[in-house]
Amino acid sequence: MKYFAVGKIINTHGIQGEVKILAVTDFAMQRFQPNNTLYVKQNNQLQPLKIRTVRRFKQFYLLSFFEYADLTSVEKLKNCQLLVDEAQQTALSQGNFYYHQIIGLTVVDQQGKQIGKIKEILSPGANDVWVVERTNNKELLLPAIKQVIKKIDLDQQQVEVELMDGLDEE
After folding, report:
1. What is the DSSP string of 90-154?
2. How do beta strands 114-122 and 37-42 pair?
3. How far is CA 65 from CA 95, 124, 158, 162, in A?
4. What positions does the domain Ribosome maturation factor RimM PRC barrel occupy (predicted)?
5. Taking a C-beta distance cutoff of 8 angstroms, is the pair 77, 70 a contact?
6. How far apart are CA 92 and CA 110, in angstroms?
7. CA torsion sign, 144 to 145 to 148 to 154?
8. Could you tell me the CATH superfamily of domain 3-87?
9. Per-residue pLDDT of the chain (170 residues; tens, 9 = 90+)
């Protein structure tokens, strides 16, 4: 089974066993609900955690788990990723994709010439930026906008792009 990150435990909060979560999901309100199960990986072991309480705190979420009752017990979770399993992923509408579906795809131009592979996705602001790793050339940064990304084919494991003027400084 595959697991995907939905948050990172960045610190503890208070003495009641709450942890401060930085969400890395577009579905935080769905993921972080009482009685939902998340997973944390420690020492190469996956441990299920059942959410007891949830509340917002500035740009973070504060969660407590049934498995941990106090500050001392929850301390060991600091800096751990919170995960969901593949079956817990929400189905996306057509034309929307999870990052893990995009990372690793081959990028080709409109003539079918291979440009490279997507190695990561950055989220600097208005739109995502796909980092394309190329052989014998520096990385290419592609804005994930419809003027550049023409077709995503998960079956063929490739993305067709139109390199607008100024995008590639070869």
Report:
1. PPPPTT---HHHHTTPEEEETT--EEEEEEEEE--SSS-EEEEE-TTS--EEEE-STTTEEEEET
2. unpaired
3. 35, 32, 40, 47
4. 100-167
5. no
6. 26
7. positive
8. RimM (2.40.30.60)
9. 788 888 999 999 989 899 999 988 878 888 899 999 999 988 888 999 999 999 999 889 999 999 998 999 999 999 999 999 887 777 778 888 888 889 899 999 999 999 999 998 887 778 889 999 998 889 999 999 999 999 999 899 999 999 887 777 65
CATH of 99-161, one of 3.30.260.10, 3.40.50.12160, 3.10.300.10, 2.30.30.240: 2.30.30.240
Specify the pTM: 0.66
| Distance in angstroms (rounded) separating the CA atoms of residues 36 and 54 | 11
CA distance 118 to 143: 12
Unique residue bearing structure tokens 């199960």: 37
- Encoded tokens for 67: 């498995």
